[in-house]
Each structure stands twice: as C-alpha cells, then as structure tokens.
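Supplementary Note 3. Input sequence used for the single-chain structure prediction.
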Amino acid sequence: MIPKSLATKNAATISLLVAPIYKFLMLILFPVITFMEVLIRIFSPKAKIEQLTDEEIDSFIDM
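The predicted structure, written as discrete structure tokens, is reproduced below.
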C-alpha cells in the first residue's frame, strides 16, 4: 500500500499516532521560529514606498 491510501483508510488511527509528535515539535520549535522571525525583522531592509506625482499618474492614465 502506498502511504496516501494507507492514511486514507486508517485516518483516525494515524492521526492519533501523529498528533503527539506534531504537538511536541510545535512546542520545541516555537521559540526557535519566534527568534528567527525577530532576527529577520531586525536585519531585513525596510521597503520604501514611493509616492507617485500627479504627472506620473496623468501619464499612466494617458497610456
């Protein structure tokens, strides 16, 4: 049997087996993920939003 059909036929059993593992990984990795997100926010370049002038808007409309 391939894993997809096996999981489809035994969904309840497999979900009960996988759920504790998934919860454990979430608890362990949550602080790591949060720390990485903070680092990314600190060191990522800030995006500049350029304001369009009236002339640029008019030229877009004329196209």
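The CA atoms of residues 6 and 46 lie 47 Å apart. The chain has three helices and no strands.
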